[in-house]
Amino acid sequence: MTIFRLHSRVNRVWAVRGLCLTLVFYIVGYVMRMSSDVGGVQSRSLLKTRDFQKAKLENVGTSSITIRTVATTKKQDLLECRSDFSDPYNTTTTLDLAERTYFDDLIDGQYVLPHKPVNEAAYSDNLEPLTVIIMPFTHVDPGWLQTLDEYYMFSVRNILDGMVRKLVFYPELTFIWAEIVFFSMWWNEQNKEIKQNVRDLVKQDEASTSYTSVIDQQTEGHQWLLDNVGVTPNNSWSVDPFGHSGTMPYIWKLAGMKNMVINRIHQGTKAQMIRENGLDFYWRQFWTQDADIFCHCMPYEVYSLKSNCGPDRKICERFDFQHVEGVFYEKINPEIDNINVVNLSRLLYEQYRMKSSLFKHNTVLVPLGDDFRYDHMNEWDQQYVNYKKLMEYMNSKPEWKIHVKFGTLNDFLNTVYKHSDTSKFPIISGDFFPYSDRKSGYWTGYFTTRVFDKTFSRDVESRLRAAEIMHSFASTYSKHWNRKYAGLVSLARQLTSARQNYGLFLHHDAITGTERQNVAMDYEQRLFSAYNIAGKVLTEATHFVLSRGKNSGPSNMKFLTSRKDSIHLAQHNLVKLFEEGSKIVIYNPTGQFRSEFVGITFDQYAIEIIDSKNRSLVYQLNPVFSSNEKVSKSLVEVWFLTEIAPFGVETYTVRKTSRPHKGQWASISVRNMKNLVLPSKLKFKFKPELSVDGMPISIQNEHMAAYFNENYGFLNRVKQLSGGDETGIDIDLSFVQYTSSASGAYTFVPDGPAIPFINTVPNIRIIEGPYLSEVQVVCPTIYHRIKLYKHKGLVGTQLHIDNTLDMASHDMASREVAMRLQTSIQNEKGTFFTDQNGFQYIRRKRHPSDKIRQHIERNFYPLTTMAFMQDDLRRLTLHSAQPHGVASLESGWLEVMLDRHIFFGDGRGMDDPVIDNKITETSFILQLEYSEKPLSDEYYSFPSLDSTVMNGFLNKPLQRMFTTMSLTGFGSNFQPVKSDLPCGISLESAKVLYNYVSGAVKGIGLILHRHGFRCSFRSKSDCEYTNLNLETLLPDTNNLDIKETTINFVQEKSSSRYLTLSSIEMKPMEIKAFFVQDTTLNKHLNKTILH
């Protein structure tokens, strides 16, 4: 779910006479990516209201960063940077809430919620009228204990068949459906009559949606709903992700959502929220008051009907009337009759009243369902008939003042709004991690479980995004060049298939790694399919633009790295060279000019590299090791500098020559190695004088120097050579392991503190050349590399870290391995910052329940793309190319969990061991920066501009292709954009949208994001501080209709009327969506797309 640019599952919901169609894409905490001068009064309780805050804000003034639009304004005047990152809008923060929470209020290990006594709640003299909404639903995971297809075949098809029949038969009955992936499978099997019946059942205002951190997946589902069913979602239903990110409320707001419902947050936190009247609240972003969304938090541990009628689970279990022949039940509940209805109605009434005592309003939502319920036709009758009798009896008791009815999520929310002063609801900022359901259970293990698949999904994400953007350029330029783009619709359909497979993996039991092994294999196959499709589309679209549309034949390009299957790492493809030369094709999928070194493996070293301007390039020759101590005779790694325009494509011709005219051989030195076998024909410079055990190890460029432990080869110090503190900081990098007999796929329960993971002296290799230097550490289970590029720009200011970890072929039972950085950064103990879905950055502290500092598991948080720690003027940032769990257990410490081998289940539903580990490669960038102003961030912060740019480059890598076929008739490059996008603005998505029913192309959807960043750090980025000129992204705008929309391209925004393409204003942190349509192709935009 979040996770985290956090975990996605595809859903949709509907209500019959309340059929509520819900689209869901879970990314549990994984799954996106400002600076200012105003502070605020810290909140002491949740009893801060919207009215109170608005009054305070009138005195505070604006708190957003403004980037003025006058082009002649000096750069330093264009930014208003915050120096105080305390609580600017006087909200209650989840950080403060945790400090006030009493985490020891438990009975038998279960957290206790502060209900009123039954006599006070149900039988006092001043009872208020109570409305109870019974909401039938089913929760269908698209892969968990069974695969997607197995669930559909054996359960889901039956549920949907029964739903259509029973919702017509019982006019009062309502039903909530989630998971569009299942609904679309079923929909495609139905005839026109059934489809129309479904459309008639769905109420237009009842569509709701569930947790997502992938805007693309959200768009996919919402567009499908609009085209097929004719509805647009307005509520979010998110009851099963394992914790909740603070980014999701903002994303849902941008998609047109008005409300959201959540469930799985720390039960101790729920208890404190109840004490402070806060289970219903407005969820606010730290940096703006303009994106609040109403949130209802369900009080009990899970969403099951057996847990949700009230506080007594044993009583709630008595009101599950499912009885399927042939299924074993420990107890079958009797049907309601004229005799037992009296006592059972009283019991249920008391539970409803006690549940209502947890809220400030007199409306209770009671979900009536569970996992894969209503898959037998008779359950519909059993639940409806019995609950109908209970309702009629309770509604007939005037002294109870209760009205119970079937309803939908929308019915519940409308009732709350109608009978409550919602302006008095509290406001909360922050997120709800980590999640805990009981005292010993902190769900922090899944942040890292099956990290191979998490990493694979990032590869798919970056390639899919690149393919969609290039496909969009091919589409727009085909019109500009007056050339037919044969793949316009067919490739768009293939991209849809890739998005659906990728989106399925983002479900909260997939990207989390909390599914059974056979289900994980099914997910991996789907990722592999998406990976290959995205690659095909990218090569075809690149082929089209390089030929200026003149060559529409199939592409013969291949990728420099590719995967042969779904279970192995990507491999470097060998580029064979011929006399006439081979072409290297490199695509920059970002809106910034990129100057980077690229490494390619050849079986020739006597080569010439010629760029698109016919210049012969200097290159560095690095060794390829065939074993620990032996350099390959036939292969070399060639590094050269690429310079590529925003969204541009550059080609490089590589030819055989008699000798490497401009090739620079790297030097090699080693430690802890008896021999180094170097082929004589390769002219690498071996340095025996440096290959002495115990000698100091260091690498450096003009910006910085890195020093390494002479015995183990691990980093131990970094010093900046240009600016900053030239004394540097200590950074002791090591690998540690936790052992556990109680961890599971979900939870992390270490036996104690970590112990060293590397117990043998490793082989160390130091490679140095004119373009990069690298320290390689080779151990039996891990291959660790740190590169330093000799680049004058931003790329040369960081260390690039790669780890290849093998937990599959060694005895790694019940071990959990982490990379730990112990530094001289003097941060408060346990205090650091992590990203929320790669979008914003929140402060973390040692968990307040861990007072004696023995509960390590409580202090891990989701890392999606970035974590940093800081003291007064220094900041150390770790950028990540894949999701992990991260912690700062001591002052100056930062550690990232790399992989887990789990031999036991943890009793959370999927109790299988996780022992299908694969060789996994993880990549990081380590960045040291010095601030010109003190860093006193209280609750949240922002990266520097340089950090924002580098993180984007890491997670949106150059797409590298090659071909050995002739490219006669092809251009040497493609440069669709004349200049960089303005500072901090990124094009997150560009995709061709088509109608799912008719197949007609609608237009192109653009998603842009203006990142916020801290301005107190010096920047090496060369970009302009201006408004966005959208015309620079399009070849011509004469026949284009461009509208600003919700981020799902479903609803046009009123601001479209004032849209000026040449100067689009975006405030820092804003995400905006634009729909671009060729008016010569479609005249009925508002009818086909925008609602």
From TrEMBL:
<feature type="domain" description="Glycoside hydrolase family 38 central">
    <location>
        <begin position="441"/>
        <end position="527"/>
    </location>
</feature>
<dbReference type="InterPro" id="IPR015341">
    <property type="entry name" value="Glyco_hydro_38_cen"/>
</dbReference>
<dbReference type="InterPro" id="IPR028995">
    <property type="entry name" value="Glyco_hydro_57/38_cen_sf"/>
</dbReference>
<keyword id="KW-0862">Zinc</keyword>
<dbReference type="InterPro" id="IPR037094">
    <property type="entry name" value="Glyco_hydro_38_cen_sf"/>
</dbReference>
<comment type="similarity">
    <text>Belongs to the glycosyl hydrolase 38 family.</text>
</comment>
<keyword id="KW-1133">Transmembrane helix</keyword>
<dbReference type="InterPro" id="IPR027291">
    <property type="entry name" value="Glyco_hydro_38_N_sf"/>
</dbReference>
<dbReference type="InterPro" id="IPR050843">
    <property type="entry name" value="Glycosyl_Hydrlase_38"/>
</dbReference>
<keyword id="KW-0326">Glycosidase</keyword>
<dbReference type="InterPro" id="IPR011682">
    <property type="entry name" value="Glyco_hydro_38_C"/>
</dbReference>
<dbReference type="InterPro" id="IPR011013">
    <property type="entry name" value="Gal_mutarotase_sf_dom"/>
</dbReference>
<dbReference type="InterPro" id="IPR013780">
    <property type="entry name" value="Glyco_hydro_b"/>
</dbReference>
<feature type="transmembrane region" description="Helical">
    <location>
        <begin position="14"/>
        <end position="32"/>
    </location>
</feature>
<keyword id="KW-0479">Metal-binding</keyword>
<keyword id="KW-0378">Hydrolase</keyword>
<dbReference type="Pfam" id="PF01074">
    <property type="entry name" value="Glyco_hydro_38N"/>
</dbReference>
<dbReference type="Pfam" id="PF07748">
    <property type="entry name" value="Glyco_hydro_38C"/>
</dbReference>
<dbReference type="Pfam" id="PF09261">
    <property type="entry name" value="Alpha-mann_mid"/>
</dbReference>
<dbReference type="InterPro" id="IPR011330">
    <property type="entry name" value="Glyco_hydro/deAcase_b/a-brl"/>
</dbReference>
<dbReference type="InterPro" id="IPR000602">
    <property type="entry name" value="Glyco_hydro_38_N"/>
</dbReference>
<keyword id="KW-0472">Membrane</keyword>
<protein>
    <recommendedName>
        <fullName>Alpha-mannosidase</fullName>
        <ecNumber>3.2.1.-</ecNumber>
    </recommendedName>
</protein>
<keyword id="KW-0812">Transmembrane</keyword>
